[in-house]
Amino acid sequence: MVINRLEGAAAIVNVILILAVLLLMNRLPPVVPLFYGLPYGEEQLASKWSLIIPPIVALAFLGVNVFVTRTTKDDFIRQILTGLTVVTTALSTITVIRIILLIVQKNA
Predict the structure, then answer these.
(1) Number of domains observed in the structure of the chain
(2) How far is the C-alpha of 21 from the C-alpha of 69, rounded, in Å?
(3) What angle do CA 85, 87, 88 make, to 5 degrees?
(4) pLDDT tens-place string over residues 71-101
């Protein structure tokens, strides 16, 4: 199975993000604000281990998209799925980095 450059880059970014969160685990508080869609307060808080959920979901999305891309013959679907993979990776990366920067600002 051959993975194109964008899919490979998305996989690398997600793995690096997971490793970065794991390396920063000792510096993070026990709970972090992850669920911004919920009402303000304790409902938004999650365990610091929850910060690896967005990149793991992005990796799972990448895996499904790579499988579907390899099984379909339609170039348009392949391009759409590759674009969605890149967008999913970018959004999960932005989310985790913003949360970490928010925590660092409050602790500084």
Answers:
(1) 1
(2) 30
(3) 65
(4) 988 889 989 999 999 999 999 999 999 999 9
CA distance 64 to 76: 17
pLDDT digits 0-9 by tens, 22-52: 999 988 889 988 888 888 888 888 899 999 9
The residues facing 33 across adjacent strands are: 45
Range of the domain at 34: 5-107
Residue 102, amino acid: L
Output DSSP code: residue 3: -
pLDDT category, 2, cuts 50, 70, 90?
low
Query: How many residues in the chain?
Result: 108
Listing DSSP states for 29-67 in one string gives: -SEEE--TTSPSSGGGEEEGGGGGHHHHHHHHHHHHHHH
Q: How many CA atoms lie within 13 A of 47 on its CB side?
A: 5
